[in-house]
Amino acid sequence: MYKKSIEAFKDSCQVIPGGVNSPVRAFKSVNCDPVFFESGKGSKLYDIDGNEYIDCVSSWGPLIFGHSDRETISSINSSSEKGTSYGAPTLIETEMAKKIIEMVPSIESVRMVNSGTEATMSAIRLARGFTNKELIIKFAGNYHGHGDSFLIKAGSGALTLGLPDSPGVTKNIAKDTLIAEYNNHISVENLLKRNEDNVAAIIVEPIAGNMGLVTPQSDFLLQLKRLSEKYKCLLIFDEVMTGFRVAKGGAQEIYNVHPDITTLGKVIGGGLPVGAYGGRKDIMNSLAPKGPVYQAGTLSGNPLAMGAGLSVLNRLDHIVFDDLERISSKIYKGIINNIKEIKTNAVINRVGSMMTLFFTDSDRVENFDDALNCDTDKYARYFKNMLDMGIYLPPSQYECCFFSTALSDGDINKIIESNKIALKNLQ
Asked: Which CATH superfamily is domain 3-64+317-425 in?
């Protein structure tokens, strides 16, 4: 069933470290060889062995309208015919900036970059430069890309591999990152009290997506805003995942909390490499060439990515999000019913079209420790069962499903039915 993928992985291991260009793709945490994909159309993925899958990952979030979306592809083709890169200003960068500012009220000015990691790294440098302070506070299990400052108690691929603290991160860099507990604002205040005059920023995933999906408790984000104002540091929302995915204005729209800086990615590139960070104009004006904080990028604001992203953002209205909610809610309710019927020890966390099924004896997953207590071996067996039935899920217990509008009622029913079979097979 996977003969060609197995051979392709052996070949890639000869020339690429670990055979992949991003660790989770190696399928190590699900104890099998990775699938090599050849194409995607709508809700479906096709591997090099000719197998078809219903895609529940959507390239980790960007593909709201599914694979090979006609308008997105048309935009990319149109842009590429004019040129792929200029290293100079283009009108479409301004158009994208205006669109982001229109959709995210807390953003008054925005700078384009090439990845979510680049966005968060730049946001941290900006926060330090603006405040003239050195320390940052992040949360255990939150993932903000692979910048050195963030690979301290990290989530995502670092967590999947059991390497929350990465070799190569120096002690001097690590000491500038303070770790708080997600959904525990008291832990943040304690750190601020001990380092009152030297914390530049609190950076947080407003909806955590890299220890699996974990939602903020009732007033957690409001408390972070209050604390950032009290102790004169900046509040940074990492909305690389959630921006334009959980709502038109991201998680900050849902919870009505406005950060000082927001980082973005994924959706704004329509599936092409992209990132952005933006916020209050007085903060953003600290960036060169206006201010002293340096950040640059040869391919920043790339016209292909800008065009693809705009084709997506321009179509994001309440009808799209209503459709995503209908699809996601139906899948969620179907799996909940399966869990109850089969009496499986599991919890589902969901916000909009993002969702994680945790295998745990607990009745909730609210923080990093809760996530670590989940049964990763059971998830691995569940993943393989679903894969063999043609359902492509995140190859890690600590990642999210991202659903697209391309999922049909037939797709939804097959996901639910396959889930029921897979859960029975785990008994």
From this structure: Aspartate Aminotransferase, domain 1 (3.90.1150.10)
